[in-house]
Amino acid sequence: MSTLDGTVVAITGASSGIGEATARLLAGRGAAVVLAARRTDRIDTIAQEIRDAGGHALSCPVDVTRAEDLHRLVGTTVDGFGRLDVLVSNAGIAPISQVADLDTDGWTAMIDVNLRGVLNGIAAALPVFREQGRGHLVTTVSTAGLKITPTMAVYAATKNAVRTLLEGLRQESTDGVLRTTAISPGYVRTNLADSMPDATIRERIRDNMRESALPPEAVARAIAFAVEQPDDVEIGELSIRPTAQG
Ligand code: NDP
Predict the structure, then answer these.
(1) Which CATH fold topology does 8-230 show?
(2) Which terms does the record give in the GO molecular function aspect (predicted)?
(3) Which of 223, 129, 237 shows the shortest CA–CA distance to 176?
């Protein structure tokens, strides 16, 4: 018997990077997973590969900025696997820049995906968690919110808004129904830099990632660690960095 046998997990941002690695790892440990993202070809393929390997997986097209998409994700999960035990709100973008550059479109996009996307997930999942009497909300925030550096201000602000949101939700949830976990990765080798519009910043981040970055599987293992705890144990905050990251 695997550690996550029967656990039902929906994951946003599952088409690449940390979300994809998390879907594969949790499915490998017995969880039934529902992969959500906008690139449907990718989530369809990954879900098929998980099923081909003997796992349980579905895919669901989701744009996290659209509240109705998150309701559809939760509905698909409950229809497909009978319930929703864990929502991993992982979708995120990082069109970072100096604040003085006034990239207001980038700011709006980060607020919409990184913050509103998590709120949309909470609005869809919380009623199901309450009805079931159990549920776990995991979010991918960032060490960018713990050590603030130039060009990361707005990105870090959205991640720290989520951190604050989760702590408030935790304080309101003392009936033992809801567990919340904020995972803060340092550099992880993914395609996140692709969403950075400034070529100089993009190359600097890619250099940093080449120099010292975790494989996405390392973050997936941290998420699994939080999910695998018994219901009365909550891993609230977890930072995970390359050992050599400053
Ligand atoms: P990727 O770019 O590989 O993954 C980002 C994921 O988010 C993709 O699956 C993408 O799917 C999805 N996504 C983006 N916008 C939307 C949207 N509007 N609706 C639904 N899904 C969306 O990067 P990572 O794996 O690195 O990023 C995952 C999370 O980890 C993010 O929240 C990021 O901020 C965080 N993080 C990453 C770090 C790093 O160094 N890589 C460090 C710290 C935190 P699609 O485009 O198909 O919709």
Answers:
(1) Rossmann fold (3.40.50)
(2) oxidoreductase activity, acting on the CH-OH group of donors, NAD or NADP as acceptor
(3) 129
